[in-house]
């Protein structure tokens, strides 16, 4: 992934979270102390915001800053969910895998 890809994915993620929270570009921009034009350019992947702006955006969107970089789409079908779970546990050691099984069992009971 290059810098251009990261800017595009970050912008799309910010836009997704903004819409999920039913916040207009103008409202979010004002709350973060930036212009709506600058926010638009961030969402379009034309600009990469400073860490300070990223912190403000994450706060106003109600997420941790790391969540702004969660570019993977949410699984949409049961089969996708199973594949995602399989991929997540593929590289973990046996001790952690046993813990995952215990947690899942407790959740489905």
Describe the protein's architecture and organization:
This protein is mostly helical and 109 residues long. It folds into 2 domains: 3-69, Orthogonal Bundle (434 Repressor (Amino-terminal Domain)); 78-108. The chain is built from 6 helices and no strands. The protein is elongated, with a radius of gyration of 18 Å. 13% of the residues are buried.
Features:
109 residues; 2 domains; mainly alpha
Can you describe this structure in just a few lines?
By secondary structure, the protein is an all-alpha fold. It has helices spanning 3-20, 25-32, 36-43, 51-61, 78-89, 94-108.
CATH domain class of the largest domain: Mainly Alpha
Q: Kindly name the structural category.
A: mainly alpha
Q: Please tell me the CATH architecture of the largest domain by its name.
A: Orthogonal Bundle
Low-confidence stretches: none
CATH T-level fold name of the largest domain = 434 Repressor (Amino-terminal Domain)
What is the N-to-C order of secondary-structure elements (H for helix, E for strand)? HHHHHH
CATH superfamily of the largest domain: lambda repressor-like DNA-binding domains
How helix-rich are the residues, as a percent range? 55-70%
């Amino acid at each position: 992934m290059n810098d251009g890809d990261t800017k595009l994915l970050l912008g799309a993620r910010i836009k997704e979270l903004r819409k999920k929270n039913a916040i207009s570009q103008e409202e979010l921009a004002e709350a973060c102390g930036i212009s709506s034009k600058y926010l638009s350019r961030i969402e379009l992947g034309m600009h990469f915001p400073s860490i300070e702006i990223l912190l403000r955006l994450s706060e106003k969107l109600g997420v941790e800053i790391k969540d702004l970089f969660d570019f993977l789409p949410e699984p949409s079908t049961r089969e996708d969910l199973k594949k995602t779970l399989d991929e997540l546990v593929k590289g973990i050691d046996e001790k952690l895998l046993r813990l995952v099984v215990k947690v899942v069992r407790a959740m489905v009971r």
